[in-house]
């Protein structure tokens, strides 16, 4: 029983990491698009 809960916990950690990576990639995409529109944003980053 303990094994099942620990595996579920590991799955949720992996899911959180995937979600975080996705969020970071999305943020980078937004920043790069904004930088194309306004070069000052690229300088700030």
Quick take:
The chain has about 45 residues and is mainly α.
What layout of secondary structure does this protein have?
Elements: H1 2-37, H2 39-44
3D structure, described in words:
This protein is mostly helical and 45 residues long. The protein has one domain. It has two helices and no strands. The radius of gyration is 18 Å and the shape is rod-shaped. The N and C termini lie far apart (48 Å). The mean pLDDT is 86.
Name the descriptors:
45 residues, mainly alpha, rod-shaped
Biggest pleated sheet: none
Count up the domains.
1
Weakly predicted, low-confidence segments: none
Shape: rod-shaped
Main structural class: mainly alpha
How much of the residues is beta strand, in percent? under 5%
The beta-strand count equals 0
The average pLDDT score comes to 86
Q: What distance lies between the first and last C-alpha atoms, to the nearest angstrom?
A: 48 Å
Give, in order, the helices and strands.
HH
**If helices are DSSP runs of H or I spanning 4 or more residues, what is the number of helices?**
2
Spatial extent as radius of gyration: 18 Å
Q: Percent helix among the residues?
A: over 70%
